[in-house]
Amino acid sequence: MDRSPLDQPESRRHPWQRLAGLALVTGLLTAGVLARASNSPPPFDHLRTGFELSGAHATVACETCHSTGRFRGTPKDCGTCHGGAGALAASAKPANHIPSTNACADCHTTATWKAARFDHADATGSCATCHNGTRAMGKPPTHLPTSAACESCHTTAAWSPARFDHAGVTGTCVTCHNGTRATAKSATHLPTPNTCGDCHTTAAWSPARFDHAGVTGSCGTCHNGTRATGKPTTHFITTMDCADCHTSSVWTPSTFRHASPSYPTGHRQTLDCRSCHVANTVASAWKTPSYKPDCAGCHALDFKPDAHKKVDSPRILYTVSELRDCTGACHSYTDASLTRIEKSRTGEHSASRGGF
Length: 356
Fold this sequence. Notes:
By secondary structure, the protein is mostly loops. It has 8 helices and 4 strands.
């Protein structure tokens, strides 16, 4: 009985027999593969489930979501898979996620988890819940000290410019009004240790309340015609400070008191400086210098000889020089010998009585 060429030993086979056998085996294998391929199901269309695999979902292995081999009933919402627990756990909301009632899809997309859309209208809690320097940018180190909430001044539409209310500010005015955070005391500001709040208000910076009690320096430091009203052109010429004659409570009348012992103090009438200082200077202090420092130094021109009788008969009158001290004593004599006093007069004129 003849053997099949494939049944003969390899050594006794003719070369054409070996080639025929190889072709037969290859054909059988190919036929088996084609038979199996013809029985494979077509590719699955995930869109038929109502959940399109878009973005990053399209490259995820099936078992990532269908972890138990279950296909029907697989949830379609983000939160169930990205919940951080269970067999379907994936990237969950982190602990530092902003507090929000939004669904994931309201801000995130399947293309990328980061670079999410965001709307402050859906955020819960106060601004500082997120704007704390960790979740989102917080107050910068240069922010003015305040206990007010962010939303008291800022809006979600624009962080700046901000509304501002001094009511929530802590600290003194100069904490902010230091020339860096806010406008500070100007170079022409009057010298004073007072705090801003002593004179200014948050409602309006000017006009300001003012109290001389807190001012440092002399009057002329401010009353120089620039910072405040200075000496008028008609002012008495003097190098004295304003406070030597004036007070901060009332500017007129002046309160100057002569320190010189020769000045006849006690004038009842309030005199203008130029009533005596006719040349409007300190140097020309006497109308009739030859009679100073007596009353006649100013009042010599007011002297009326007829009213100052020394003897009736023959009629003898006093001279200015004799009565230069108007407040002193004088006498009327009986005759020209001036030995017998007829009448004595003392204190006839007094600076404190007004009428001369």
